[in-house]
Amino acid sequence: MEPLNICPRFEQAINMLGKRWTGLIIHQLLDGPKRFSVLEASTSISGRVLSDRLKDLEQNGVVKRNIIPESPVRIEYSLTDKGLALEPILREIENWSQNWIEQDYGEQIGQ
């Protein structure tokens, strides 16, 4: 059997975006900057996992961590231009899911 000839950049992109919760985090940030606590509450992702994913996305240049010098210090997360470039893709996945994913899918997979 002949090995698949997959573009290394495509494979890297799929590996980054395919991590659990990553797409949901990016989707939440499409509406604008959000604080960690807001992301945690709106996604029901555990704080540890959310922190790990945000660090990964920041290292990959998809998310920017903004420190706002107030008392107490406020930290918000927003999408970079690289992250915002994913909007049409995520909107198409959203459209596809509305047409093809059954509403009770989350219950079927144990969420």
From TrEMBL:
Please, which domain of life does this record's source organism belong to?
Bacteria
Record keywords, A-Z:
DNA-binding, Transcription, Transcription regulation
Looking at the keywords, is Lyase present?
no
Which InterPro entries does the record match to this protein? HTH_HxlR, WH-like_DNA-bd_sf, WH_DNA-bd_sf
Natural source organism: Metabacillus sediminis
Q: What is this protein called?
A: Helix-turn-helix domain-containing protein
Q: Where is the HTH hxlR-type domain?
A: 7-105
Q: Where are the transmembrane segments?
A: none
Kindly indicate whether the keyword Transcription belongs to this entry: yes
